[in-house]
Amino acid sequence: MSKNGFVASAKPPKIKPSKPVKLEQPAVLDITAENIKNTAQITAKLISDTPGRLRLRVGNKHRKIEEMQRISNALQSHPNIKEVRTNVSQGSITIQHEGEESLENVYSALKDLGIIFGDIGQGKSEVADGVASTVINLNKQVKKTTDGVVDLRFLFPLGLGCLSIRKLMLQGLQLDIIPWYVLAWYSFDSFLKLHASSLAKEEQ
Asked: Which residue in 44, 82, 96, 166 is a FRET match for 179, CA 20 to 30 A apart?
């Protein structure tokens, strides 16, 4: 209390105004007409369509890690899509969605990304794609196991070479039983392969 009988009051502390906090909004598909017009078309083939699951395969020229990841990220941001799995070597995209009610929205999202369904021009069946993928994965595993020293492109012809030497030692040359057209074909084929690089340079 002061001498004149008044009570001294303390000044209230100054409150600094807080800076506004920016909330990051989740990425959404840009489905404006201008964006759809500028989006490059990606031809894909519908592989399977079951309740809550859609699987498609894109063409060879779109089977790149960056492009597949871009498609996956864009689809993941869609509210009706639960999960997206991709396989770059096969070009497959598997979409888990909410069900029949959301299927039309999923197709619309694919269309907005420039994905159209049609002939991807592979000329391969599902079995052929599966076998090719298995061989590719096996080749990667062999290369990884041997630290990149050998792969199937070396081991397969080596195995055939060893088998031919064994047959030669057991049965001899047997040149008299080889048809003339087989020798003619090997002659033509070996000429092309041995001169492939020089022929390519001449064409350029």
From this structure: 166
